[in-house]
Amino acid sequence: MNILGIDLGSVQTCAILAQKSEEGLKIIGFGKSKSSGIKKGAITNIELASKSIEEAVADAQMMSGVHYDKVIVSISGAYAKSVDSIGVVNIPNQEIGIKEIHRAVSTAKHTANIPSGYEIIHVLPYNFKVNDLEHVEDPLGMSGNRLEVSTHIVISQEVHIKNLKKAVELADLRVDNIVLSGYASSIACFDDSEKELGAVLIDMGGAVCDMVIHAGNSVRYNECLQIGSVNITNDLSIALHTPPKEAEKLKLNYASLAQNENSLIQIPYMGDEKRKNEVSIEVISNVIYARIEETIIILAKMLSDNASANQAGAGIVLTGGMTKFAGLDKLASAYFDNKAVRIASAKKDTMDGFKEIFDDPENSCAIGLCLYGGGYFTPYELDSNEKLRYKGEPEIINKQIKQNFVIEEYEEKEEKLEEIFQDRQIFDEEKEEIKKVEVKKEKKPSSFSKIWNKIINQF
């Protein structure tokens, strides 16, 4: 089975093709394109966004040489909210199976206070209770007459989900699942000990910072800060009065937060690129440092105001393109109450593939999407299609996709057969006409035969 993960970001679109076999998952295709028609995680132009998807997917497919079986697409946390809900069901046969767990999780979904105009992306159970026994990790196979589940439900506005699906479908793809981008990144970056102790993941991207808190074997909290590396580019462009393209180059070339050089460099002037302006590297470094420091302070404030952050015993994991700034982890640890902070890219022990793809923190979300499609998710959850997902579930490729392909193929064949039958019918009719003409010709006597008959009759 080939899984296509599409991370539709505000700055770039990343597509990764992973192949799942008995040996495990392996990355076989990779593609990136500059994002267009997307701002702050929301689609502002469906046609431009679909072209970005199409370009990235085309590169991934060209590299792999195979087609996809499953498509998993990320949705930004900028327009996602969450609600918590509890579901309680009776167990008549006193034996808890998959059906009973499904009933309990579905009950939590139905009793949740979901605002009008919102759709469910994930229903994530984080705590089970069997009778009076609390903090049950996995109730499957246990005996009891009452099952209670506490869930964290991730929701997003219907219009954002519909626009996302339209953009993907316009690129000739069909969406199997939509996954919260921060959740996907956590799947790629967290190890087992961090999941067990609880940890915070912050995906610092181009336009937004997605945050999730993982505790109790599941996601307990998700939030988003609409600040990213694009803000640094804008700050440099405004402060130095240089074009945004040049500001982007400066950001990438002087990405170390520890730089404090007084040497001067020449940069083009905004509106007149032939005119040059001298700027010290120290000024560039100060502008970058100020924006990153502000971003970390806001993120630290968001965590301090949330009770779930106290359960993050393993500390804070940072990933995403913005983490490429050297010295970011030391700066972050000073503001996150001296909690353990590490810069992470996707783990290599869950998937094989190209080292360069794993080492780049920009690819964490796309790799996480492929892992999600391959079965690396929380022990139980209702996905964006409101279907129960669980460990060890049978592999199901989207039947609707296959059915549509079969129907389309059948209709094409049927049309071709109709054309052949019509051509055959026309041919048969023409053949009959020719025969009739030949028969008429045979019946009609020639002029020579007429004269010969007259001579014979005289004698």
From TrEMBL:
Keywords: Cell cycle, Cell division, Cell membrane, Membrane
Gene Ontology terms describing biological process: FtsZ-dependent cytokinesis
The SHS2 domain, residue ranges: 3-189
One protein family per Pfam: FtsA
Keyword hit for Cell wall biogenesis/degradation: no
Localisation: Cell membrane
NCBIfam families the UniProt entry points to: ftsA
Known function: Cell division protein that is involved in the assembly of the Z ring. May serve as a membrane anchor for the Z ring.
Subunit annotation: Self-interacts. Interacts with FtsZ.
Protein name: Cell division protein FtsA
Lineage: Bacteria, Pseudomonadati, Campylobacterota, Epsilonproteobacteria, Campylobacterales
Gene: ftsA
